[in-house]
## 1
Amino acid sequence: MSTIFNGNRPKIGISSWRRDLPTFLGEKTDLFTLDPDYAKSVWLAGGIPVLIPQTSIDLIQDYVDLLDGLIVSGGGDISPLVYGEVDTGQSYDVNVETDRFEIALIHEAAKRNLPTLGICRGLQLLQVAFGGKMLQDLHEKFPNHPKTKGSAEEILNQRHVVDFSEDCMFAQIYRSTHHIVNTIHHQCVQSVGKGFRPVGWSEDGIIEAVESETSWFALGVQWHPEKMKSPQEQELFRYFIQSIDHLTKKKV
């Protein structure tokens, strides 16, 4: 893991979303993509964003060698096969190869104590990687939770409330145990993975934030802070990168 000295920006790997999109090469062009808001948030917080494409699992150790921190980003649903469930047909944009690659990346990050932040799908992968379970359609259990329907603007403008444990990092980051977030998901974590604890919940009881209970600095959120324009949301990225700086200096 590279070292942060003399104001050098830490290198923050961000997982990419592999999907088929129309280009001049055809209607379904296989691409690694990333919402630029992730890169912008990392840059504004003091880091250098580094896109991580899904390649060979054999390269994961080399990826981690390059990085000071890792963000597991949003994207398609996780295949139920990965967390030992029957696919009921309610999961979308699944890619088992990507799931397995990113889970292997998470395991290597944990092994190396590489600071890690999971966002939406990233939170879910952090839990599945360590035995957590998912609800393939959260609305079967939480029918009143906002649905991801309507125009892009309508979906991005939906909000709901999350309440944090008083002793968690998020209460410190947002200086409150009560926070308003966006709603861009139709699945959720049913049970957390080994080594994590839930620390934030929606009003109807969905797990919305988790943090590691071990020496590994890892946390995750179900919402998309990079898509919220409030300056307060930038505090999560700033806290993450400042923590990397602090943890690195402790090792020197």
Note: Residues 11-251 form a domain with the Rossmann fold fold (CATH 3.40.50.880).
## 2
Amino acid sequence: MADGSLGRIAALIRQDGRLMLRDPAPLVVRTVMPLLIMGFMQPLFRTALRADDVQGANGSEQAVPGMAVMFLFFLVTVVGFAMFREHGWNTWDRLRAGPSRPFELVAGRIVVPLAVAVLQLAVVFGAGGLLFGLRVRGSYLALVAVGVPLALCVVMFGMALVSLCRTVSQFAVYANLAALLFAGLGGSLTPQSALPDWARALAPGVPSYWAMRGFNTIVIDGGGVAAVLLPIGVLCAFTAALTAVTLLFFRIDHRKISWS
């Protein structure tokens, strides 16, 4: 039984992987765009960080993690479109008729986007170091410890939206609005110290705030894994809550409306 379940999940993963490799352009754009924006934002962030008495700051300390977090949440659309695609292609009924259970359908759909999210973070941070002079003062292991739960949180946010939205248009609107809201409140667009008072009060309610808090602790303050346990724990809590929403509202017999 377990082998059969793993086999069905693996088949879904292979299918998603083939489709993503067939048209990688959207993923390439989501990786290149933050690098382009960093070039424009770095001087502004340099001024803001030096105003906060961050010694030797060149702006990349805010630009790289900020753009990495912001554009990672735009990856939510990739998660959703993979699910709505099945309805648009009229292949969802075939999946329903097969032996796959709802849990297997969800599990099979999160692995490829999760791998892409982790790879996107790695590329953006790596390119930030090479192109913009980012110097990580803390532990690289701590970067991974924050980045992986952040990536999983993004993927499960996408699955939760899929379970709640009936049409792909609804999903796209909510996903993009959330990405922009999370970027603003979380400190991706400006250092958290520069946020207005009302935004500072709301900021801890979004996962991007805790991701930026963790990355800032590592990049600027030189922290290690022990220093970012709180952000890691909160990101895991967000992921658990989004997983619960997905499992509660996801129904295999729900009809979704795609563009095609």
Note: The chain has one domain: 2-249.
## 3
Amino acid sequence: MSFFHKALASFGIGSATVDTRLEKDTYRAGEVMRGEIIVRGGQVEQQVDSIYLSINTTYVRESNDHKHTEVATLQKVKVTEPFTLAASEEKVIPISLTLPFETPISAGKTQVWIQTGLDIKNAVDPSDKDYIRVEPTSLAAQILDAIGRLGFRLREAECEQAPARFRGYYPFVQEFEFVPTGSFRGHLDELEMVFLSQSNHSAEILLQIDRKVRGIGSFFAEALEMDESYVRTTITLHDLPTLPEKFQQIISKHI
């Protein structure tokens, strides 16, 4: 009977299970996530080589005019050393994991989840998937708010594969696409922004200012993307009192 149960466990039937329980489901980028992993033994004793946690998201990669959805791992950590899990045994393992500053914000189509897995040789590895909501850092939130105060409305937010020259730790950036509804309406088609790097004290951003071209040659300007300007700048805590004015000046120079 034991051999039969072991055979079933190798296919994931009657095997160990894992369940991660976080203190909450909403976190700010850069915040420490705390909780516990509950591991329950199955019908037979099993050797667990490790338990790992990973923070994941998806991004869009374009290839040959086709869009593909890829999974990106922002961080992966090993939680335990090898151990033996007896049949029906329950283990509770406390965890803490820092959410990277570059974790995409929960906006638009963006999703972020915590994946927990048990590494068990010669068996289907049990896993658990928990989605979380990610809020921007305080600085990033004020940057987004400043753009909104200038009359820009967020139309879309999506993680896309980053060009090599703008690639940081990860193969993607989260792009925020805004449409002008205030004084820039009629001058710009759209404003796009990405966070290239972040900390509690500063954020490097890239603005793509898409001008609304008029008159003769406008078609060719758009075809050659001559109507777009790129501005790379760093925002610090010292900029916050005059942040809307700073963005106003940057954008006005390129219309």
Note: Confidence is low (pLDDT under 50) at residues 1-14, 215-224.
## 4
Amino acid sequence: MSLVSDNKPGGNGDSSFSDDVWEQFARDTERDIRNSAPKEPSARARMVTERLRQQDERGDRPESWRVGPSVHETKRRSARRRRLWAVIGVPLAVVVAVVAMKPSLLPGDPFGTSSDDAPAASRLPDETAPPTAAPSASSGTPTLDRPFAGSPAERWADGADGIVVPRATAVGPLTEAQVATALRRTKTLLVEANLDRATLRGERPEAAIATLDPKQPKMLDDVNGWLRSPGKGHDPLALFTRFDPEEIRLVGDVVKTRGRITFKAGERASVVIHADYSFVYPVTRADNNSTEVTRTIVRRVLDLEVSDPTKYRVTPGKLSVRRYDRDLANSACDVHDGFLHPRFDSADPGGPDPSGPTVDPYDRSRGIQHSEPGACGTLSRT
């Protein structure tokens, strides 16, 4: 079919083109029209198209054949995203709400909400030699939440962690293992006599007594007498820390400790162990409604000995007590009932006015000082 008119350009039927040129123009025009006209796909093309459509519906068409995700794949991805947000979004929303109400649950202080009066206190290194001066002053008032505020002990170790046993070596006829046993028993005595909760409540300190040598003349008799009938000159506070549970309640679970243990060869085929430790006890009144906190500081110096059992009549591994001394700070000095009696700022101190020298109970650079009989010393801080 030709869409070319039989009339040739040129007005009155006259042609300005030759017949050959006109025929070539007609052929070219007819070819271009055929090429641009829509063509019906071949039978093979129709088969391939139908097969791909069916594979899309089944979801098994190779991914590489698609330019983008199929409708089914898009739906599956959307469903997965909704499920993921359901699992993560709800708990995340709960966490955000809780933190908004209580930012202190976050570690550190990301919002800068910490109070300036509660700085974090880094622990002091263990004491390995006698201090040369008293610790510097600290600011703060003890509370139920911060019972060591305002005390150098805030940077001391907690409880038994502060009682560090040195590495054992052989001493004289005693082997390294024997010395190690003696050092471990020394720590046990300190812990059970000054940190054990039952002992602090005034109960009998059986575990502490078990470290002592029953063959040491009079020692166990004296200890049993102190516990059975406390009094002036025979007070169990000489070796054990005790509070009357009807009067005093410990604040929190921590007693602060600081000191050192050393050892050397003794004169009786023995090892002599020297222990010098301070213990700081935060307390309040036994009344559960009490919020006032004070502290009692107890310093103990012990010289203990373990002799060669092949040369002396001793119990292997048990401790003989050669010296026991103590300094009790912030406790009524005129009461001898076997308990410590801390004083509180809000209470009438009663008893005699302080008449002894002023001492710093945290000053471990000095030796234990004893006041004159009947005198009550003055504390520079507690």
Note: The chain is about 25% helix and 15% strand.
